[in-house]
Amino acid sequence: MKKVKVGLVGCGFISEIHARALERVESAEVIACASPEEDRAIEFARKFKIPKWFLDYKKLLEIDEINMIVIGAPNNLHAEITINAAKAGKHIVCEKPLCLNIAEADEMINTCRKANVKLMYAEELCFVPKYVKLKELCDCGAIGEVFLVKQSEKHDGPHSRWFWDVNKSGGGAAMDMGCHALAFFRWIYNNPKVENIYADMSTVLHKDKTRGDDQSIIIVTFENGRKAIAEESWVKKGGMDDRAEAYGSKGLSYATLHMDISLKTYSEVGYEYVAEKAPISKGWTYTIYEEEWNYGFPQEFEHFVNCVLHNEKSLITGEDGKVVLEMIFASYDSAKKGCRIQFPYTSDAKKPIDLWL
Questions:
Q1: In the chain, what's the furthest Cα-to-Cα distance?
Q2: Of 194, 211, 193, 189, which Cα lies nearest the Cα of 202?
Q3: For residues 343 and 324, what is the distance between their CA atoms, to the nearest angstrom?
Q4: What is the dihedral of CA 254, 258, 260, 262, to 10 degrees?
Q5: CA 304 to CA 68: how far, in whole Å?
Q6: What is the DSSP letter of 152?
Q7: Average pLDDT of the chain?
């Protein structure tokens, strides 16, 4: 079987998810990884049996047999890595958000187009089994004409320290998780035009760590008056809460992750792993199983690998990532001005948080 040879740029939390997901894709093989932290690169390569590791990702790009790279680096590096990878002839899977600003997004898209390589945007919510079923219900008319969709992701803060630094992340909770919700809304509604966005943001608990928002609500109005509401939080205690809702003229549907796909467990001594962001393992807990599959990561990467193998268009592209980024910029602008932001919308700000601060 022909395999897509993959290089992972980044060896942190999200890259571990990428590596585990790719282990389940028969037609993919991870042959190299890169991280500027030597100890992390060595341990990551050992853990996932990756034959080559580098401190400089550009060395990884020099490997001819690598067909595709996956970017799990901080947000401020996405554009640079993508552009260099495209020039090296590699297909690219870029984690959300696509980059920090629209100028970078345009350069990434144009460089990939010129190099004839695929720029695929890693939005796993479009592959979550429960959410895929929710979309099927919306598309087949099971709940009538859908007029409102909600999606929320809430926990008590990010895994890596760089998220707190707005110069690296570009924003706070809205930038980190709002990307998921906005891409999800477009997917559920089949990519309609955005009419306007209204957002409210605040920094409730983490002023000592970041200038970014740790609590955000975003309301999107699409064409034909259809609406969507995103709630993103870095202040919610007790572990991850990820859920979606769809309301139609003839019904509704709820899709909740985490507690509804776990084992209710009681332990007096505690145990190694409960679920993402779960703070304790003693007492009553909700033990996750098949976590990556329930989050859609293996399905997502199988799709991306098949796009490379068969030269097909990805479900989520760099162009989609750019639209999501425009919506994120409008959200921060709205939160600052306290009013709806009308579309079409453009901004020449260097990063979304600059519009809010």
A1: 59
A2: 211
A3: 13
A4: 170
A5: 9
A6: E
A7: 96
Distance between CA atoms of residues 114 and 95, nearest Å: 21
Number of Cβ within 10 Å of residue 264's Cβ equals 9
Residue type, 243: R
- CB atoms inside a 10 Å sphere around CB 34: 26
pLDDT value of residue 262: 87
Tell me the per-residue pLDDT of 300-333, one tens digit each, with 9 for 90 and over.
999 999 999 999 999 999 999 999 999 999 999 9
The one-letter code for the residue type at 220 is V
Kindly report the pTM of this predicted structure.
Answer: 0.95
> Rounded to the nearest 5 degrees, what angle is found at the Cα of 323, between the Cα atoms of 317 and 326?
145
Exposure pattern of 128-148 as b/e (b: 16+ CB <10 Å)? bbbbeebbebbeeeebeebee
**What domains lie within the chain, and their CATH numbers?**
4-125+297-316 (3.40.50.720), 126-295+323-356 (3.30.360.10)
State the pLDDT at residue 45. 98
Report, as an integer, the average pLDDT of 192-217. Answer: 97
Torsion of CA 65, 302, 22, 63, to 10 degrees: 10
Read off the pLDDT band of 257 (50, 70, 90): confident
Contact 121, 191 (CB under 8 A): no
Residue 159's φ and ψ, nearest 5 degrees, are -75, -40
Q: Chain-centre distance of CA 67, in angstroms?
A: 22
Chain-centre distance for alpha carbon 200: 21
